[in-house]
User: Fold these one by one.
Assistant:
Number 1:
Amino acid sequence: MKPVILDHLPDALLDQPASELHRHLDGPTLIHLPGRRPQPLFVSVLQHGNETSGWEAIRRLLKSRYQRDPLPRSLVLMIGNVRAAARGQRRLADQPDFNRCWPGAHGQRTIWHQLFGEITEHVRRLKPFASIDVHNNTGQNPHYAAVNRIEPQRLQLAARFSRTVIYFTEPLGVQSLAFGEFCPAVTLECGLAAETDGTDHAMAYVDGILNLDELSARMPAPEHLELYHMIATVTVREDIDFGFSAQAADLRFQPDLDRLNFREMPPGTRLARTVNGHGLPLIARSHDGRDLTSDCFAFADGQVVTRRPLMPAMLTTDESIVRQDCLCYLMERIGLDRPGEGRLDDDGSELPETLP
Ligand SMILES: [Zn+2]
């Protein structure tokens, strides 16, 4: 399979919602649009078919004054999973998760790995100004940006979207990790796809970056950035019957649990009640496979409570997502201003000592 590369917008493409793009595009498609500054900005939308804020932002942006005026900077747009978008799904049953198939991914190489590898090589040769990959998530989350290296230009890129920035190095095979090898790369999480403020925010952000002359090579000031890293993924044990209402047989979460997203929870914060006396209904695991459950949670007197200061992200109250993916991620703050904490190593690009 080859990526489709176009040097123009197909007719009427900007009139199509994400669910109709499959009638106009065959599959993942790159579209080159010229602008006054030749070094292009790369923007990726719809890697996940039901995460529509990115496409909505781009089509509104390109239908705005830029239908008349030239773009301030060239744009390379990647439109990802149009087949899944037609069904309003993240991916289809016969597809892998596109955002796990970029260079650096673990495991077996499929035709999709080859396709995203070719796209990567194509864009690398264009020496892009920056790379922006736009997503949505489920549950109540603030908008935030994510980076894969602690490095000034990508933190500047991230902090222009949100004060809240997450640093992650796993899972492998994501687009921002691959493109981060050759340009500042950021992932945007624009809240729920159904809410228009995610689209508004992404559109204003992309417009702002298109209009930038350069990205500052200085670290953002600590007051402009709250940087967190993921320490664990939390799942519910498979044999546990759980839910967010009183019907759940074993484990009953607080019904509005997603309100805790991005709140720093003090030790002792109650997350759920256990009904049938299961000792360990939750599992917290670091990305290198260590079991952090008893470090993070206490299970006593029919309660599940936290044991140390933690901040959850992407907590969802959708039971099917909890089953398929996870309950949430647990984050810890990285200080950029306090000596010894979040300290940069010699090349200024990694934080190995704080990795999970
Ligand atoms: Zn996504």
Number 2:
Amino acid sequence: MRSVKDRLEKVFRGTKIDAILLTTNENLDPNFIYLSGFENGLDQNGVFESHYLIATRRGMTIITNPLGIGECRAQRPREMKIASIDSGKKLIALLRRHLKGRVVGVNGRFISYNWIGLLKKEIKPKKIVDISQAFDSVREVKDRGELGKMRTANAIIKKAVDQARAYLVEGVTEMEMSMHIGSLVIKNGGSAPSFPTIVSFGKNSADPHHMPDSTKLARNTVVMIDAGARYKGYCSDITRTMIFRPDRKSDKYARMADIYNTVARAQKLAMKEYIVGNDASKAHNAAESFINSARGGAYKGKFMHALGHSVGIDVHDGRNAVSPYSKFKFREGMVFSNEPGIYVNGFCGVRLEDDVLITRKGPRIL
Ligand SMILES: [Mn+2]
């Protein structure tokens, strides 16, 4: 697997460290997925609870235990050695052998304060360095293997949301719909939803991150579904908004449709800015200024979140967002969501979202 070597090289390039230590005590460190290339057992903590990954420029060692060794053997890339331990004492001895006196990089956003204390006291590295930002920046640009997984993750969620339309009947609740979408993700080959599925009906859709409750679906109201699938460790994130059994002669329908059409046009305009070398803020501004000036300013200020975020191993992958404050330029291989919205309190909200890959030939919806 050429990609493992590439990834090690990229992470080490921007840092002055001898080794990396990743821990998966309570939760799975996303960088563990990135470096190992593992594809199964990654949801929640999966089978990799209490595993440790030590990486150097040349290769890596995974420290596993009798519960996890089977999966480690099954998924191990060529560059990975496996060490199985059955006691805390052996763990300490092994870590000491690899890390004592070395400059050790850790994911400061993830490793626990406990573990830093333990490292200092028992392992005695020369220095501990937070390399979370190095991981962020290399993970932002996807390689071919990653893009393949992300395409599948997108295909799965699109199919699931499409099939979920069959469950939209009068009286169904938001929670029921959320559950249906979750099982359709699995049915279509995903390992899990990539985040708790948002389903909001009617007025609830004016709250961008409304969590599904027992609200029942009524005719001529908005249905907003914001959902994602995970596939082999990689996420998708899309939003679809529709009007359930529209009464096309009603004023209410005309208002909802106008909001929808405005958001759809804003999304198209923003998409044109997802270009290699372009300032990311331009994409946001294209959507926002269109929304603010539409209908004589009727929707001014009603798009109040960032246009996009990086998507990858995490749904919000890395720190860069597509917003008025973005300080970076789009590069080939980046994937950002494009998700403008209009939220009218007490009435409804509309958001449309796709994951967009930046290529030299222009933007591509995954
Ligand atoms: Mn999103």
